[in-house]
Every structure is written in C-alpha cells, then in structure tokens.
Amino acid sequence: MGDPAGIGPEIAIKASLNREVRDICDPVxxxxxxxxxxxxxxxxxxxxxxxxxxxxxxxxFLTPGESDASCGRAILEYAGxxxxxxxxxxxxxxxxxxxxQSSIKSAGIDFDGYPSxxxxxTGTDPDDVFMMLVSDRLRIAHVTLHLGIREALDLIDVxxxxxxxxxxxxxxxxxxxxxxxxxxxxxxxxxxEGGLFGSEEAEIVAPxxxxxxxxxxxxxxxxxxxxxxxxxxxDAYVVMYHDQxxxxxxxxxxxxxxxxxxxxxxxxxxxxxxSALDIAGRGKASSSALVWAIKQxxxxxxx
Length: 303
Fold this sequence. Notes:
The chain is α/β, with parallel strands linked by helices. The chain has eleven helices and ten strands. It has two domains: 1-123 and 265-303, Isopropylmalate Dehydrogenase; 130-263, 3-Layer(aba) Sandwich (Isopropylmalate Dehydrogenase). Helices cover 42% and strands 14% of the residues.
C-alpha cells in the first residue's frame, strides 16, 4: 500500500478496480483496511474486499499529506508482509506503492531503496541486486543507484558491472526474452572519447564487458550515455549511475514506468514516482504507473 499518508492507498484502490488488472490477475492489497476505507470514501468507492489487513496505523491519527515515523514503519511492514507472501508461494509477485524515504529514516530504519531492502528481506546478497526501470520503450538497469556521485563512482568496478549484467540478463529471460541484447554505457562524457575524458571505460567497463560476453551475455559498449538510447535494437540498457538512467526513463514514460528489483528470488517492482504528499487524499492521483507495473509482472508470470 505504500505510505498511508501519501497517494499509495488511493492508487492501490484504483488499480485494484482497473479492468485490465482484474483480467490478468487477482490483486491483493497488503496494508490497513481502515486507511483504505477512508480513501475509498473520498473516491466514492466501496472499500476494497481483498485486503491483508496489518493494522499498522491508527487511522484516527493519520492526516493525508503528513507522513511521519509511524508511516515509515508501516511502509516497510506492508512491503515485508508482501515479500514474505511471495516467498511462501502465497503471491506470484509484489508491486509496492510509493514510499517516503524521509519517514522511514525518521523511524530509525536503515533504508537506501527497495532493491537492497528486498535483498536483505529475501536473504540475497545486496551486491547481487539492482534496479531496472521498465517502460513500454526502455528497460534500464543501474550499476549504482541512490548514492552521491562521488561515492557511486568509487563503487563502479569490473565485478559490479558483471553482476549487473548477469542480473539484467536473468530478469529479461524471466519475462520471456530468451537471448537479450544489452547495451552498456560508459562512465565519462562520450564514453571517454578514446581516453580524452577519462580512462575508466578502457580500465573498467571494457574488461567487464569482455567477462560478461565470455559468460554468454550479449553485452555491447561502452557507449556514450547521451546517444546509447538511439540503438533501438537493444532489449535493455545498463548505466553506471542514477541520472544516466532515470532522466531518459522519466522523459519518455513518467506515468508508465516501473522499478524492478532484479537479482532477487521474488518478482518485485515499485512505481517509479514518489508518494506525492501534496495531493494525497484529494482523489487526484493517477494509478497509471502502478497499473503498468502490475501488468508487467503479471506478464512475467505468464511468460
């Protein structure tokens, strides 16, 4: 359900009633029934029926648009229960509504994004789990994610790039692409321009691509991140840091982009937008990104 003070409950209700969603899966909302009933009243809808009610929030003290530590704890309680259900075979996939990272932090919880959190929840090495943004036009996996640029650059090395490529290939095969072609960006402008703008492409990215190809991954590059996306023959793109991937993904499909956690034993996605506290509780939120994410994971299960 995401942040109970954000748009998560509203878009969860809207998505659960969406005809396309109901045609391809049986949606279950993990959250708080009383919170959902309150948002449903605002939408002039009946409360959703298929709810795993955790009772994590006292609705009497909840103000839409005002997220706090109790909301932060609830966000991960909902997501944790959903992941546990998937691990137990009680759910086929998990799609998380938007979270509010500041509220999770205020609850005293160490949280740096869903990919590493899902890794810990499922007992997977966090170093093997990455984020891939998916829209109808682009699939973009990230070698590093929510880090300051200096810290991100220090983490980029041959093994990490190879692990990203491995997780990317596996996830694409899982959604029905048997032999994916993957384009890989450089680190520096124009992929270093033959060493004029840095040597990392020759010293780090190229050796990683060589290792990946030796392991049977159809990886190509390194390409300049500004022109790489012109290659429409690629099934996915791998970028080195956050903005190389998030900027193009949101430019071409802000309302239709899902964020997959790849490399985990469960199919897990979150929506690629925030909890929009400024419009929470007003009935104005679009569920299109959530519907898109659900359709992608339902398609993966049917592949």
